[in-house]
Amino acid sequence: MAGIHITDIEAAINFWREKKPSPDGVTLAPELRALAEVYALLIFYHEDEADEKGFPPAAYAAWKAWYDTTPDTPCIAICSTSQGDADCKGCGRTFEEVQHWPAMTPAEKRQTWRRITLEGDAWRFNKYSERAAEGPGEPPASA
Prior knowledge:
By secondary structure, this protein is mostly helical. It has 2 domains: 3-67, no CATH class; 80-131, no CATH class. Helix content is 42%, strand content 4%. It has 5 helices and 2 strands; from the N terminus they run E-H-H-E-H-H-H. It has helices at residues 6-19, 30-44, 57-67, 95-100, 106-119; strands spanning 3-5, 49-51. It has a two-stranded antiparallel ribbon with strand order 1-2. Helix 1 (6-19) packs across helix 3. The protein is elongated and about 55 Å long.
């Protein structure tokens, strides 16, 4: 099962805080409240991921709305897996991830984004950063 990392939940919370700010500094929008419950449980249990399948529907819908604003693929159109590499030099994904990307769930895609961002050695993060959807010098949406 794919997990949704706490940093993605934080990014979704910040997305909704900007999109639907509290009218009185106390009241939270329903999307924020749903995400805050998941976030609080992660903190309480010292976890850094929540299983995608066990996500409450309202929290998942709020997270998915944020996810839909992020670049879908890390591809920069320099795919070395087509030349036989096990890992793409351009985006950092494995051959299997490139091949199965369309069938992967949002959480599986975000896990891949997180891994390649933490590794930071794919060309999309250095040599060819201008090709990245988020533009040169801009980090990918919360890895």
